[in-house]
Fold this sequence. Notes:
By secondary structure, the chain is an alpha/beta fold. The chain has eight helices and nine strands. Strands 1, 2, 3, 4, 5, 6, 7, 8 and 9 form a nine-stranded mixed beta sheet that branches. A hairpin with a 4-residue loop joins strand 7 (210-218) and strand 8 (223-228). Helix 4 crosses helix 5. It is globular.
Amino acid sequence: MNFLLISPPGWGKTTAACSGRLPAMLVDVDCKAAEMNNLKLLINKGDVVIYPIKERMVQDRLSDRAKNPAKPPQKMPEGYLHTVDLLNDVLDGNPEYDPFKTVILDSATRMKEHMIKLLVYHRGQGAFGKKKEDDMNWPSWGSYLANMVELFDAMKDLQKDFICTVHQKTIEKTTTTMVGTQVIESTEIIGYKPMVDGQFRDQLAGYFNEVYYMDAKTTGGSPTYRFRTRGTKYDARTSLPLDEFEKASIEHVLRKGGVW
Length: 260
C-alpha cells in the first residue's frame, strides 16, 4: 500500500512514517532523521536505514549567488537527481534494496525545492529555449508538473509499501466588506493542501491509497499526534475501515484494516 502523510513541520510525520512494516529505507531529503531521538532505536537496530540526500540546493559559492541573484546557478544542482535515481534503483529491482518492506520519501516538499533549482539551472543553460516576451511561467511549469507526475506514477508500481511525507499549506480566503465608512477584512481558512506547487497541489493525493493529515490533540501538556482520515477541508481519505481519527501508526491502521 502507499500512504501520503501531511502536516506542518514537526508534527510527527517522519516518526509515523517509520511505524510500518520493517525494515524500512528512508530517503531523507530533509536530512534530519539521523538526529531524531525517537528514531535512534530503530536506526541502531537496522530497522530503519537512512539514505540521506546531502546535496545542497545550489553548488555555487553562496557569495556568488548573492552577487548575482538574477542569474541561474552555474553548477547543476543534483539533489533531485540523487533522489529519483535512488527510487529508480528500487523500482528496477536493485538487490541492495530487496530486504526493505517499506520505502519512505521524506519529504516531497523538500524534493520539490531541489527540482525547482534544477529547472532554474536548465533554464540558464538554454534547455527551455528562448524566453518568450511576457511569459511569466518560463521555464514552463509544465516541466515541473511532468516530473512530479512521472515520479509518483512510477512509484505506484513499487512492490513494497511506499510512504511519502509532505508539508501542509493552509489555503485562506480574504473577504472585504464595508461597515459604514470602514473597510473590514476577514480571513477564513477554506482548506488544507500538500505544500507543492501549481496544479500538482490538487493532484498529489490521487497517487496514494491512503491520505492522512496529522492532527494534534492536546490534553494537559504535550500534544498527542493522530491521523485524520477524512474531513471536508482536507484531501484526507482512506479505503480502510477506520475512524475519522486514528493512532498515528502505520502498523495500527494496517492491522485495524486487516491488511497486516
